[in-house]
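>> received
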Amino acid sequence: MAVWWQALLLLCWALNCVRSSAPAPLVQRNKYNNSFRLARSTRTRVQQLQKKYTEQQLGNKHFEDRGRQLRELPSLSTDFYSWLTLTDWDRLHAAFWDMQAYWNMLERKRKQLERQHIGGQALHSTLPQSIKHIQLDLRDLMSQVSNQMSYMRSSWMKPTSPTARAPLSPENRSQTLWDSRVEGYVILRDLDLYLTKLARDFLLLASKTGNPPVS
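>> returned
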């Protein structure tokens, strides 16, 4: 009996060693895989919300305005070589602050819609709640990116601590009701495009650990 217990304890110890010594690249690949999937699923929800928003707020779910820009949103234009040669730390750091910028803009728009609801301009609208769901997805993504950066800080790479990016203050301009509604469309339009770029970032990061995520 004593021999049996000794064998069982030895087996448990060996299994624990296997679990605790899982290769770091495999752990990171799984994290990037999860982030990749969440970015894609969030983009799908953003696209669904954009159609609902343009239909309810602009009267046409096929509304398009590719020319209007908001300076508070991150730039979507990227030089391919510069994007490809970013360090992993810089890529994650930029992703965190870009998502924070979109979260802030969605928060402002959500509160505007809630005030419209209270004022009777958008009765029974589910838009504020739908925006809140997108914000929760972005928070989850930001948390995952933050954890990935914490892992890098604890590794041998020891990257330089980043300087926090100061948020841009909202533009001080008078807006018509139409302009305010189009602003919401622009936020969702650019967030859709940004999440495509973010998913590519996670694909690239995963490829450096071995195999990229499987969509």
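>> Residues 23-207 form a domain with the Growth Hormone; Chain: A; fold (CATH 1.20.1250.10).
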